[in-house]
Amino acid sequence: MNQLQNLLHDALISTGHVQHCAIIRRKDCSVRANSVGFMLYPDQIQMLLDAFKNPPQSREEGLYFEDKQFKCVRADKNSIYAKNDKRGLVLVRTATLLLAATYSDNMFPSVCVEAVEKLADYFKEKGK
User: Fold this and answer.
1) Contact call for residues 113 and 5 (beta carbons, < 8 A)
2) Helix segments in the chain, DSSP class H
């Protein structure tokens, strides 16, 4: 595992409240690290990044992710939280990265959000 893989595991997966996660470089939509079984394609990544361009529209329309419509519960210039039934998606962007995480019905959304936001803060402190 590379350093970013370890960071994903230690900061997110180990909480027990993040199902899948990825670190994506915004500039070229490349996945820098991801959890096992979490595949994101460039067109999906671009759609997630585009959601940050117009947060009010994202809040109103929601996001289509993994063949499901997710309702936005928060959307601003740095963070987007969306849910579909008892599953959810957390997106946080930094200067150069996008952090994406999902949670499932047996996980606490608040713990997932806190873990992703803390990891994003770490990257922001590093200038990434």
Assistant:
1) no
2) 3-11, 42-50, 55-61, 109-125
Compute the distance between CA of residue 50 and CA of residue 53 in angstroms, rounded to an integer: 5
**pLDDT level of residue 1 (50, 70, 90 thresholds):** low
Residues 6+ apart with CB under 8 A from 21: 8, 12, 13, 34, 35, 38, 99, 100, 101, 102, 116
Is the sign of the CA dihedral 19, 114, 107, 45 positive or negative?
Answer: negative
3-state secondary structure (DSSP) of residue 40: coil
Please enumerate in sequence order all residues whose Cβ is within 8 A of that of 60, keeping only pairs 6 or more positions apart, or say none.
Answer: 72
The pLDDT confidence band at residue 127, using thresholds 50, 70 and 90, is: confident
| Cα gap 94→125, rounded to integer Å | 10
Structure tokens at 7: 């960071």
Note the pLDDT of residue 2: 84
